[in-house]
Protein backbone atom coordinates (compact mmCIF):
# COMPACT_ATOMS: atom_id res chain seq x y z
CA UNK A 1 0.00 0.00 0.00
CA UNK A 2 0.95 3.65 -0.03
CA UNK A 3 3.89 4.97 1.88
CA UNK A 4 2.26 8.39 1.86
CA UNK A 5 1.71 9.89 5.23
CA UNK A 6 -1.80 10.59 6.43
CA UNK A 7 -1.25 14.32 5.97
CA UNK A 8 -0.67 13.98 2.24
CA UNK A 9 -4.17 12.56 1.86
CA UNK A 10 -7.19 14.54 0.83
CA UNK A 11 -5.76 17.85 -0.23
CA UNK A 12 -2.07 17.68 0.57
CA UNK A 13 -1.59 20.98 -1.20
CA UNK A 14 2.02 22.03 -1.67
CA UNK A 15 3.49 18.96 0.03
CA UNK A 16 5.63 16.43 -1.78
CA UNK A 17 4.12 13.09 -2.71
CA UNK A 18 6.32 10.77 -0.70
CA UNK A 19 6.87 7.04 -0.90
CA UNK A 20 5.64 4.87 -3.76
CA UNK A 21 8.94 3.38 -4.95
CA UNK A 22 8.91 2.26 -8.55
CA UNK A 23 8.70 -1.27 -7.12
CA UNK A 24 5.17 -0.53 -5.78
CA UNK A 25 3.34 -2.37 -8.53
CA UNK A 26 -0.05 -1.39 -7.16
CA UNK A 27 0.32 2.37 -7.36
CA UNK A 28 -2.11 4.06 -9.74
CA UNK A 29 -1.39 7.71 -10.45
CA UNK A 30 -4.20 9.72 -12.04
CA UNK A 31 -3.33 13.08 -13.60
CA UNK A 32 -6.29 15.49 -13.63
CA UNK A 33 -8.89 15.73 -10.88
CA UNK A 34 -11.93 16.57 -13.02
CA UNK A 35 -14.89 14.30 -13.69
CA UNK A 36 -12.87 11.60 -15.49
CA UNK A 37 -10.02 11.54 -12.98
CA UNK A 38 -12.29 11.45 -9.94
CA UNK A 39 -14.55 8.81 -11.47
CA UNK A 40 -11.53 6.66 -12.31
CA UNK A 41 -10.38 6.78 -8.68
CA UNK A 42 -13.88 5.95 -7.45
CA UNK A 43 -14.35 3.15 -10.01
CA UNK A 44 -11.02 1.59 -9.03
CA UNK A 45 -12.18 1.33 -5.42
CA UNK A 46 -15.66 0.14 -6.45
CA UNK A 47 -14.06 -2.59 -8.53
CA UNK A 48 -11.84 -3.67 -5.64
CA UNK A 49 -8.45 -2.13 -6.41
CA UNK A 50 -6.42 -2.72 -3.25
CA UNK A 51 -3.42 -0.52 -4.01
CA UNK A 52 -2.49 3.11 -3.71
CA UNK A 53 -4.45 5.68 -5.74
CA UNK A 54 -2.82 9.09 -6.13
CA UNK A 55 -4.95 11.79 -7.76
CA UNK A 56 -3.07 14.90 -8.93
CA UNK A 57 -5.06 17.99 -9.90
CA UNK A 58 -3.69 21.33 -11.08
CA UNK A 59 -6.58 23.40 -9.71
CA UNK A 60 -6.60 24.49 -6.07
CA UNK A 61 -10.29 23.73 -5.57
CA UNK A 62 -11.90 20.60 -4.24
CA UNK A 63 -12.72 18.60 -7.42
CA UNK A 64 -15.93 19.83 -9.00
CA UNK A 65 -18.39 19.23 -11.80
CA UNK A 66 -18.34 21.57 -14.83
CA UNK A 67 -21.90 21.58 -16.29
CA UNK A 68 -23.27 23.76 -13.44
CA UNK A 69 -20.63 26.40 -14.26
CA UNK A 70 -22.60 27.66 -17.27
CA UNK A 71 -25.91 27.32 -15.42
CA UNK A 72 -26.64 27.56 -11.68
CA UNK A 73 -23.11 28.52 -10.57
CA UNK A 74 -22.91 31.34 -13.10
CA UNK A 75 -26.20 32.76 -11.93
CA UNK A 76 -25.25 32.51 -8.27
CA UNK A 77 -28.01 29.94 -7.68
CA UNK A 78 -25.40 27.45 -6.47
CA UNK A 79 -22.23 28.31 -4.62
CA UNK A 80 -20.18 25.58 -6.25
CA UNK A 81 -20.41 22.12 -7.69
CA UNK A 82 -17.91 20.04 -5.72
CA UNK A 83 -18.27 16.29 -6.17
CA UNK A 84 -19.84 14.50 -3.25
CA UNK A 85 -16.91 12.10 -2.82
CA UNK A 86 -15.16 11.35 0.47
CA UNK A 87 -11.63 10.93 -0.86
CA UNK A 88 -10.12 10.16 2.54
CA UNK A 89 -12.69 7.46 3.29
CA UNK A 90 -11.95 5.84 -0.07
CA UNK A 91 -8.21 5.98 0.58
CA UNK A 92 -7.61 8.22 -2.40
CA UNK A 93 -4.53 10.42 -2.00
CA UNK A 94 -5.76 13.69 -3.46
CA UNK A 95 -3.18 16.38 -4.19
CA UNK A 96 -4.67 19.69 -5.22
CA UNK A 97 -2.75 22.54 -6.82
CA UNK A 98 -0.36 19.93 -8.23
CA UNK A 99 0.42 20.44 -11.93
CA UNK A 100 2.08 17.62 -13.83
CA UNK A 101 4.59 18.84 -16.38
CA UNK A 102 5.71 15.63 -18.05
CA UNK A 103 5.93 11.86 -18.01
CA UNK A 104 8.78 9.44 -18.66
CA UNK A 105 7.16 6.08 -19.47
CA UNK A 106 10.50 4.23 -19.56
CA UNK A 107 11.09 5.15 -15.91
CA UNK A 108 7.42 5.12 -14.92
CA UNK A 109 7.62 8.62 -13.48
CA UNK A 110 5.51 11.73 -13.80
CA UNK A 111 7.07 15.12 -13.11
CA UNK A 112 5.17 17.56 -10.97
CA UNK A 113 5.91 21.03 -9.68
CA UNK A 114 6.70 19.32 -6.35
CA UNK A 115 8.99 16.62 -7.71
CA UNK A 116 8.70 13.27 -9.48
CA UNK A 117 5.99 10.73 -8.68
CA UNK A 118 6.46 7.05 -9.59
CA UNK A 119 3.64 4.96 -10.94
CA UNK A 120 2.84 1.37 -11.80
CA UNK A 121 -0.28 2.39 -13.74
CA UNK A 122 -0.87 5.90 -15.03
CA UNK A 123 -4.22 7.42 -16.04
CA UNK A 124 -4.19 10.63 -18.08
CA UNK A 125 -7.36 12.63 -17.35
CA UNK A 126 -6.33 16.22 -18.03
CA UNK A 127 -9.49 17.10 -19.95
CA UNK A 128 -9.64 19.96 -22.41
CA UNK A 129 -8.80 23.64 -22.45
CA UNK A 130 -10.80 26.35 -24.18
CA UNK A 131 -9.49 27.84 -27.40
CA UNK A 132 -8.71 31.53 -27.06
CA UNK A 133 -9.56 34.04 -29.77
CA UNK A 134 -6.32 35.14 -31.45
CA UNK A 135 -5.35 38.57 -30.19
CA UNK A 136 -7.51 38.32 -27.07
CA UNK A 137 -4.75 37.60 -24.59
CA UNK A 138 -4.34 40.36 -22.08
CA UNK A 139 -7.34 42.37 -23.33
CA UNK A 140 -9.30 43.46 -20.23
CA UNK A 141 -12.84 42.12 -19.99
CA UNK A 142 -12.29 39.07 -22.22
CA UNK A 143 -13.33 35.80 -20.58
CA UNK A 144 -13.28 32.06 -21.21
CA UNK A 145 -15.60 29.66 -19.40
CA UNK A 146 -14.03 26.37 -18.36
CA UNK A 147 -13.14 26.56 -14.69
CA UNK A 148 -14.74 27.50 -11.40
CA UNK A 149 -12.45 30.53 -11.31
CA UNK A 150 -13.77 31.58 -14.75
CA UNK A 151 -17.38 31.25 -13.52
CA UNK A 152 -16.61 33.21 -10.38
CA UNK A 153 -15.07 36.02 -12.44
CA UNK A 154 -18.17 36.09 -14.65
CA UNK A 155 -20.75 36.12 -11.86
CA UNK A 156 -20.38 39.83 -11.02
CA UNK A 157 -20.41 40.63 -14.75
CA UNK A 158 -23.86 39.04 -15.00
CA UNK A 159 -25.03 40.56 -11.76
CA UNK A 160 -24.00 44.01 -13.10
CA UNK A 161 -26.38 43.58 -16.08
CA UNK A 162 -23.73 44.73 -18.51
CA UNK A 163 -23.52 44.73 -22.32
CA UNK A 164 -22.00 41.39 -23.24
CA UNK A 165 -20.70 40.05 -26.52
CA UNK A 166 -20.46 36.27 -26.79
CA UNK A 167 -18.16 34.96 -29.49
CA UNK A 168 -19.36 31.57 -30.75
CA UNK A 169 -22.89 30.14 -30.91
CA UNK A 170 -21.92 26.62 -29.82
CA UNK A 171 -23.09 24.80 -26.69
CA UNK A 172 -21.15 26.99 -24.23
CA UNK A 173 -22.03 30.23 -26.06
CA UNK A 174 -25.74 29.34 -26.05
CA UNK A 175 -25.74 28.39 -22.38
CA UNK A 176 -23.83 31.50 -21.39
CA UNK A 177 -26.17 33.70 -23.45
CA UNK A 178 -29.13 32.04 -21.72
CA UNK A 179 -27.75 32.80 -18.27
CA UNK A 180 -26.75 36.35 -19.22
CA UNK A 181 -30.23 37.11 -20.55
CA UNK A 182 -31.78 35.63 -17.42
CA UNK A 183 -29.57 37.97 -15.39
CA UNK A 184 -30.82 40.94 -17.43
CA UNK A 185 -27.71 41.63 -19.52
CA UNK A 186 -27.84 42.92 -23.06
CA UNK A 187 -26.38 40.07 -25.16
CA UNK A 188 -25.07 39.90 -28.72
CA UNK A 189 -23.78 36.54 -29.97
CA UNK A 190 -21.34 36.69 -32.87
CA UNK A 191 -20.89 33.51 -34.91
CA UNK A 192 -18.58 33.07 -37.89
CA UNK A 193 -20.63 30.22 -39.39
CA UNK A 194 -24.01 30.76 -41.01
CA UNK A 195 -25.89 29.20 -38.09
CA UNK A 196 -25.57 28.19 -34.45
CA UNK A 197 -24.09 24.78 -33.60
CA UNK A 198 -22.68 24.51 -37.10
CA UNK A 199 -20.12 21.90 -36.07
CA UNK A 200 -22.74 19.64 -34.47
CA UNK A 201 -26.02 19.87 -36.35
CA UNK A 202 -27.11 20.19 -39.99
CA UNK A 203 -28.45 23.49 -41.29
CA UNK A 204 -32.09 22.28 -41.44
CA UNK A 205 -32.03 21.49 -37.74
CA UNK A 206 -29.97 24.45 -36.52
CA UNK A 207 -32.26 26.80 -38.47
CA UNK A 208 -34.94 26.14 -35.87
CA UNK A 209 -32.63 27.25 -33.07
CA UNK A 210 -31.97 30.69 -34.51
CA UNK A 211 -35.31 31.98 -33.21
CA UNK A 212 -34.51 30.82 -29.69
CA UNK A 213 -31.94 33.62 -29.41
CA UNK A 214 -34.37 36.32 -30.50
CA UNK A 215 -37.13 34.92 -28.24
CA UNK A 216 -34.82 35.30 -25.27
CA UNK A 217 -33.94 38.87 -26.24
CA UNK A 218 -30.40 38.06 -27.41
CA UNK A 219 -29.13 39.28 -30.79
CA UNK A 220 -27.54 36.56 -32.92
CA UNK A 221 -25.24 37.71 -35.75
CA UNK A 222 -24.25 34.75 -37.90
CA UNK A 223 -21.74 34.80 -40.77
CA UNK A 224 -19.86 37.46 -38.83
CA UNK A 225 -16.22 37.39 -37.79
CA UNK A 226 -14.54 39.30 -35.02
CA UNK A 227 -11.88 41.61 -36.45
CA UNK A 228 -10.48 43.01 -33.20
CA UNK A 229 -11.06 43.07 -29.47
CA UNK A 230 -10.35 46.20 -27.55
CA UNK A 231 -11.21 47.32 -24.03
CA UNK A 232 -14.95 48.04 -24.00
CA UNK A 233 -15.72 47.06 -27.60
CA UNK A 234 -15.63 44.35 -30.25
CA UNK A 235 -15.00 45.28 -33.88
CA UNK A 236 -16.52 42.99 -36.46
CA UNK A 237 -15.18 42.22 -39.93
CA UNK A 238 -18.17 44.03 -41.49
CA UNK A 239 -17.11 47.25 -39.76
CA UNK A 240 -19.65 47.16 -36.93
CA UNK A 241 -18.37 48.17 -33.50
CA UNK A 242 -20.26 46.55 -30.64
CA UNK A 243 -19.98 48.04 -27.14
CA UNK A 244 -18.96 45.31 -24.73
CA UNK A 245 -18.39 45.60 -21.01
CA UNK A 246 -17.40 41.94 -21.23
CA UNK A 247 -16.63 39.45 -23.99
CA UNK A 248 -17.08 35.73 -23.49
CA UNK A 249 -15.28 33.52 -25.97
CA UNK A 250 -16.81 30.10 -26.58
CA UNK A 251 -15.22 28.86 -29.79
CA UNK A 252 -14.36 25.32 -28.72
CA UNK A 253 -11.89 23.37 -26.66
CA UNK A 254 -8.92 21.16 -27.40
CA UNK A 255 -7.39 18.29 -25.41
CA UNK A 256 -5.10 19.52 -22.61
CA UNK A 257 -2.16 17.37 -23.66
CA UNK A 258 0.65 19.88 -24.23
CA UNK A 259 2.46 18.43 -21.20
CA UNK A 260 2.78 15.09 -23.04
CA UNK A 261 4.76 16.58 -25.94
CA UNK A 262 8.10 14.94 -25.06
CA UNK A 263 6.68 11.76 -23.56
CA UNK A 264 6.61 9.61 -26.67
CA UNK A 265 2.92 8.90 -25.98
CA UNK A 266 1.09 9.02 -29.32
CA UNK A 267 -1.15 12.03 -29.92
CA UNK A 268 -3.52 12.63 -32.82
CA UNK A 269 -3.54 15.72 -35.08
CA UNK A 270 -6.34 17.13 -32.88
CA UNK A 271 -4.08 16.84 -29.83
CA UNK A 272 -6.00 13.92 -28.35
CA UNK A 273 -4.20 11.01 -26.72
CA UNK A 274 -4.59 8.11 -29.15
CA UNK A 275 -6.03 5.18 -27.21
CA UNK A 276 -7.23 1.71 -28.17
CA UNK A 277 -10.59 0.18 -27.30
CA UNK A 278 -9.45 -0.40 -23.72
CA UNK A 279 -8.46 3.30 -23.46
CA UNK A 280 -4.82 2.19 -23.34
CA UNK A 281 -2.28 4.61 -24.78
CA UNK A 282 0.84 3.75 -26.78
CA UNK A 283 2.88 3.50 -23.53
CA UNK A 284 2.74 0.42 -21.30
CA UNK A 285 0.26 0.63 -18.42
CA UNK A 286 -0.73 4.18 -19.35
CA UNK A 287 -4.43 4.88 -19.96
CA UNK A 288 -6.32 8.03 -20.93
CA UNK A 289 -9.93 8.98 -20.30
CA UNK A 290 -12.42 11.83 -20.69
CA UNK A 291 -12.06 14.96 -22.83
CA UNK A 292 -8.34 14.39 -23.54
CA UNK A 293 -8.56 11.07 -25.39
CA UNK A 294 -9.85 9.69 -28.69
CA UNK A 295 -10.73 6.03 -29.15
CA UNK A 296 -11.72 3.80 -32.06
CA UNK A 297 -15.46 3.25 -32.28
CA UNK A 298 -16.44 0.05 -34.10
CA UNK A 299 -20.05 1.19 -33.69
CA UNK A 300 -19.46 4.34 -35.75
CA UNK A 301 -16.51 3.13 -37.84
CA UNK A 302 -14.24 6.00 -36.86
CA UNK A 303 -12.12 7.39 -34.05
CA UNK A 304 -14.16 9.56 -31.66
CA UNK A 305 -13.05 12.48 -29.49
CA UNK A 306 -15.97 13.23 -27.18
CA UNK A 307 -16.14 16.38 -25.05
CA UNK A 308 -19.17 15.53 -22.97
CA UNK A 309 -19.88 14.72 -19.35
CA UNK A 310 -21.28 11.21 -19.90
CA UNK A 311 -18.05 10.15 -21.61
CA UNK A 312 -16.11 11.25 -18.54
CA UNK A 313 -18.48 9.13 -16.43
CA UNK A 314 -18.47 5.93 -18.54
CA UNK A 315 -14.84 5.77 -19.69
CA UNK A 316 -13.40 5.46 -16.17
CA UNK A 317 -15.23 2.17 -15.59
CA UNK A 318 -13.44 0.64 -18.58
CA UNK A 319 -10.07 1.94 -17.43
CA UNK A 320 -10.62 0.67 -13.89
CA UNK A 321 -11.68 -2.78 -15.15
CA UNK A 322 -8.47 -3.11 -17.14
CA UNK A 323 -6.25 -1.97 -14.29
CA UNK A 324 -7.99 -4.21 -11.75
CA UNK A 325 -8.25 -7.26 -14.01
CA UNK A 326 -5.10 -6.75 -16.03
CA UNK A 327 -2.92 -9.29 -14.24
CA UNK A 328 -5.46 -12.12 -14.38
CA UNK A 329 -4.69 -14.89 -16.86
CA UNK A 330 -6.62 -14.64 -20.15
CA UNK A 331 -8.13 -11.27 -19.13
CA UNK A 332 -9.58 -9.46 -22.13
CA UNK A 333 -11.68 -6.80 -20.38
CA UNK A 334 -14.41 -4.53 -21.69
CA UNK A 335 -14.11 -2.57 -24.91
CA UNK A 336 -15.08 1.10 -24.73
CA UNK A 337 -17.52 1.79 -27.54
CA UNK A 338 -20.31 3.91 -26.06
CA UNK A 339 -23.26 5.63 -27.64
CA UNK A 340 -22.13 9.22 -26.90
CA UNK A 341 -24.68 11.29 -25.01
CA UNK A 342 -24.97 14.88 -23.88
CA UNK A 343 -27.50 17.44 -22.83
CA UNK A 344 -27.66 21.21 -22.90
CA UNK A 345 -29.99 23.63 -21.18
CA UNK A 346 -30.51 26.68 -23.38
CA UNK A 347 -33.18 29.34 -23.79
CA UNK A 348 -35.62 27.46 -21.53
CA UNK A 349 -35.23 24.23 -23.48
CA UNK A 350 -33.75 20.88 -22.57
CA UNK A 351 -31.74 19.69 -25.56
CA UNK A 352 -30.35 16.14 -25.62
CA UNK A 353 -28.40 14.23 -28.21
CA UNK A 354 -27.33 10.59 -28.35
CA UNK A 355 -25.21 8.78 -30.93
CA UNK A 356 -23.17 10.13 -33.81
CA UNK A 357 -24.42 10.94 -37.30
CA UNK A 358 -22.97 12.08 -40.60
CA UNK A 359 -24.45 14.12 -43.45
CA UNK A 360 -25.04 10.87 -45.37
CA UNK A 361 -27.51 9.49 -42.79
CA UNK A 362 -31.29 9.74 -43.30
CA UNK A 363 -33.01 12.37 -41.16
CA UNK A 364 -36.50 11.73 -39.82
CA UNK A 365 -38.38 14.57 -38.07
CA UNK A 366 -40.61 13.73 -35.12
CA UNK A 367 -42.93 16.62 -34.42
CA UNK A 368 -43.05 20.26 -35.38
CA UNK A 369 -39.67 21.99 -34.95
CA UNK A 370 -41.37 25.34 -34.48
CA UNK A 371 -43.11 23.95 -31.37
CA UNK A 372 -41.65 23.55 -27.88
CA UNK A 373 -40.99 19.81 -28.19
CA UNK A 374 -39.67 17.85 -31.15
CA UNK A 375 -37.03 15.32 -32.09
CA UNK A 376 -34.93 14.29 -35.04
CA UNK A 377 -33.80 10.71 -35.71
CA UNK A 378 -30.90 9.72 -37.95
CA UNK A 379 -31.10 6.31 -39.61
CA UNK A 380 -28.36 4.39 -41.39
CA UNK A 381 -29.52 1.39 -43.45
CA UNK A 382 -32.74 1.54 -41.43
CA UNK A 383 -30.99 1.42 -38.02
CA UNK A 384 -31.34 4.26 -35.55
CA UNK A 385 -27.85 5.66 -35.05
CA UNK A 386 -28.45 9.13 -33.54
CA UNK A 387 -31.21 11.22 -32.04
CA UNK A 388 -31.70 14.86 -31.05
CA UNK A 389 -34.52 15.55 -28.61
CA UNK A 390 -35.76 19.03 -27.70
CA UNK A 391 -38.08 18.86 -24.70
CA UNK A 392 -38.77 15.17 -25.37
CA UNK A 393 -36.65 13.31 -22.80
CA UNK A 394 -38.65 10.10 -23.29
CA UNK A 395 -37.58 9.98 -26.94
CA UNK A 396 -34.01 10.33 -25.78
CA UNK A 397 -34.23 7.58 -23.15
CA UNK A 398 -35.89 5.14 -25.55
CA UNK A 399 -33.77 6.22 -28.52
CA UNK A 400 -30.51 5.76 -26.66
CA UNK A 401 -31.40 2.15 -25.85
CA UNK A 402 -32.51 1.51 -29.43
CA UNK A 403 -29.23 2.92 -30.75
CA UNK A 404 -27.31 0.62 -28.40
CA UNK A 405 -29.34 -2.33 -29.70
CA UNK A 406 -28.88 -1.29 -33.35
CA UNK A 407 -32.68 -1.40 -33.72
CA UNK A 408 -34.28 -0.96 -37.15
CA UNK A 409 -37.08 1.61 -37.22
CA UNK A 410 -40.15 1.92 -39.39
CA UNK A 411 -39.63 5.38 -40.84
CA UNK A 412 -43.31 6.35 -40.98
CA UNK A 413 -43.94 5.35 -37.37
CA UNK A 414 -40.72 7.03 -36.19
CA UNK A 415 -41.95 10.23 -37.83
CA UNK A 416 -45.18 10.15 -35.81
CA UNK A 417 -44.51 11.86 -32.46
CA UNK A 418 -47.60 10.25 -30.95
CA UNK A 419 -46.02 6.79 -31.40
CA UNK A 420 -43.49 5.97 -28.66
CA UNK A 421 -40.13 5.53 -30.35
CA UNK A 422 -39.78 2.00 -29.00
CA UNK A 423 -43.02 1.12 -30.78
CA UNK A 424 -41.53 2.20 -34.10
CA UNK A 425 -39.15 -0.76 -34.11
CA UNK A 426 -39.51 -3.00 -37.18
C1 LIG B 1 -19.00 25.38 -18.62
C2 LIG B 1 -19.19 23.97 -19.07
C3 LIG B 1 -20.47 23.43 -19.14
C4 LIG B 1 -20.65 22.12 -19.57
N1 LIG B 1 -21.92 21.63 -19.66
C5 LIG B 1 -22.11 20.38 -20.13
C6 LIG B 1 -23.43 19.87 -20.28
O1 LIG B 1 -24.42 20.54 -20.00
N2 LIG B 1 -23.58 18.60 -20.75
C7 LIG B 1 -22.51 17.80 -21.08
O2 LIG B 1 -22.70 16.66 -21.51
N3 LIG B 1 -21.23 18.26 -20.94
C8 LIG B 1 -21.02 19.52 -20.48
N4 LIG B 1 -19.74 20.01 -20.34
C9 LIG B 1 -18.60 19.13 -20.69
C10 LIG B 1 -18.15 18.30 -19.49
O3 LIG B 1 -18.12 19.09 -18.34
C11 LIG B 1 -16.77 17.72 -19.77
O4 LIG B 1 -16.92 16.81 -20.85
C12 LIG B 1 -16.15 17.03 -18.58
O5 LIG B 1 -15.88 17.96 -17.56
C13 LIG B 1 -14.84 16.33 -18.97
O6 LIG B 1 -14.22 15.83 -17.83
P1 LIG B 1 -12.64 15.57 -17.80
O7 LIG B 1 -12.35 15.09 -16.42
O8 LIG B 1 -12.25 14.76 -18.96
O9 LIG B 1 -11.98 16.99 -18.04
P2 LIG B 1 -11.98 18.28 -17.13
O10 LIG B 1 -13.32 18.47 -16.50
O11 LIG B 1 -11.45 19.38 -17.99
O12 LIG B 1 -10.94 17.98 -15.97
C14 LIG B 1 -9.56 17.88 -16.21
C15 LIG B 1 -8.81 18.37 -15.00
O13 LIG B 1 -7.43 18.12 -15.19
C16 LIG B 1 -6.69 19.23 -14.70
N5 LIG B 1 -5.40 19.28 -15.40
C17 LIG B 1 -5.17 19.66 -16.68
N6 LIG B 1 -3.85 19.60 -16.95
C18 LIG B 1 -3.26 19.15 -15.82
C19 LIG B 1 -1.90 18.87 -15.49
N7 LIG B 1 -0.92 19.02 -16.37
N8 LIG B 1 -1.61 18.43 -14.24
C20 LIG B 1 -2.61 18.25 -13.33
N9 LIG B 1 -3.93 18.52 -13.61
C21 LIG B 1 -4.23 18.95 -14.83
C22 LIG B 1 -7.56 20.41 -15.01
O14 LIG B 1 -7.23 21.50 -14.16
C23 LIG B 1 -8.95 19.86 -14.75
O15 LIG B 1 -9.38 20.12 -13.45
C24 LIG B 1 -19.53 21.32 -19.93
C25 LIG B 1 -18.24 21.87 -19.85
C26 LIG B 1 -18.08 23.18 -19.44
C27 LIG B 1 -16.68 23.75 -19.38
Description:
With 426 residues, the protein is an alpha/beta fold. It has 7 helices and 26 strands. The protein has helices at 35-46, 148-159, 171-182, 203-216, 309-325, 393-405, 411-414; strands at 28-31, 53-56, 92-95, 100-104, 109-112, 115-118, 121-124, 128-130, 142-143, 163-167, 186-190, 219-221, 226-230, 233-236, 241-243, 246-249, 253-255, 273-274, 286-288, 293-297, 302-305, 341-346, 349-355, 362-366, 374-380, 383-390. A 5-stranded parallel sheet has the order 3-2-1-7-19, covered by helices on one side. It has a 5-stranded parallel sheet with strand order 9-16-10-11-12. Helix 1 runs parallel beside helix 5. Bound molecules: flavin-adenine dinucleotide. Flavin-adenine dinucleotide binds at residues 31-37, 56-59, 66-67, 69-70, 99-100, 125-128, 145-146, 172, 256, 259, 290-291, 307-310, 312, 342-344.
Amino acid sequence: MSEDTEETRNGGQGRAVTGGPSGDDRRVVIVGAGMAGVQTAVALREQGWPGTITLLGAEPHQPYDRPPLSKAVLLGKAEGSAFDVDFAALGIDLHLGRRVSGVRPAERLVHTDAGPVPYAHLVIATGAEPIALPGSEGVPGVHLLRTLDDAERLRPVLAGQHDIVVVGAGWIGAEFATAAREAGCSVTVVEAADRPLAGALPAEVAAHMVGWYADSGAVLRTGTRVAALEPGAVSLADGTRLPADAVVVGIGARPATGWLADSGIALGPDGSVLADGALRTSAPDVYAVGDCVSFPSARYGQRLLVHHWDNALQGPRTVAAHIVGGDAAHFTGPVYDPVPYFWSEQFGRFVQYAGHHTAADTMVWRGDPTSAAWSVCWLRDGSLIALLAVGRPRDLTQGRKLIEQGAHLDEARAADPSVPLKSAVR
